[in-house]
Amino acid sequence: QVQLVESGGNLVQPGGSLRLSCAASGFRFSTYSLNWVRQAPGKGLEWVAFISSGSGSIYYANSVKGRLAISRDNAKNTVYLQMNSLKPEDTAVYYCVKNLADVSGIYDYWGQGTQVTVSS
After folding, report:
1. What residue ranges of the chain have pLDDT lower than 50?
2. CA 57 – CA 43 distance, rounded (Å)
3. In what order do the strands lie in the sheet with 18-25?
4. Which residues contact 11 (CB under 8 A, 6 or more apart)?
5. Which contiguous run of DSSP H or E holds residue 34?
6. pLDDT given for residue 103 in this prediction
7. Residues in Cβ contact with 76 at an 8 Å cutoff, skipping those fewer than 6 apart
8. Tell me, what's the pLDDT at 104?
9. Inter-CA distances, 86 with 16, 100, 120, Å
């Protein structure tokens, strides 16, 4: 079965950095696009970043451009989110999310999430 397992979330001070990882299994990883989506306390879901199967297309939410970077290692079946210059408003549960297909805007599987807390 499809599994997406996030890790790397932690408590970090404003301006700090974290690197989130998502280990995938149960599907042909290199064929699919993936996303990072987050949910802040008391808020709805917010799409953060997208990466296509071969990393040829990458998109970010305006709120994270220049600070967060998505990447993937298809040999390791892993997608990453490098988070720099973190702000308190980045506090959220971060989910790794699979697309139905490489060019589809439909999400079909979610990880369990990893908590990122940015606070002094």
Report:
1. none
2. 28
3. 3-7, 18-25, 78-83, 68-73
4. 117, 119
5. strand 34-39
6. 78
7. none
8. 76
9. 6, 30, 11
Q: What is the SS3 string spanning 48-115?
A: EEEECCCCCCEEECCCCCCCEEEEEECCCCEEEEEECCCCHHHCEEEEEEEECCCCCCCEEEECCCEE
| pLDDT score at 20 | 98
Residue 66 is predicted with a pLDDT of: 97
Do the bridges between strand 58-60 and strand 45-51 make them parallel or antiparallel, or are there none, so unpaired? antiparallel
DSSP character at residue 29: G
Specify the pLDDT at position 58: 97
Q: Which residue, chain included where needed, has tokens 């999310």?
A: 97
pLDDT of residue 101: 86
φ, ψ dihedrals at 53, nearest 5° = -60, -40
CA 11 to chain centre: 17
Q: Report how far residue 38's alpha carbon sits from residue 11's, in angstroms, rounded to the nearest whole number.
A: 16
CA end-to-end distance (rounded Å), the chain: 40
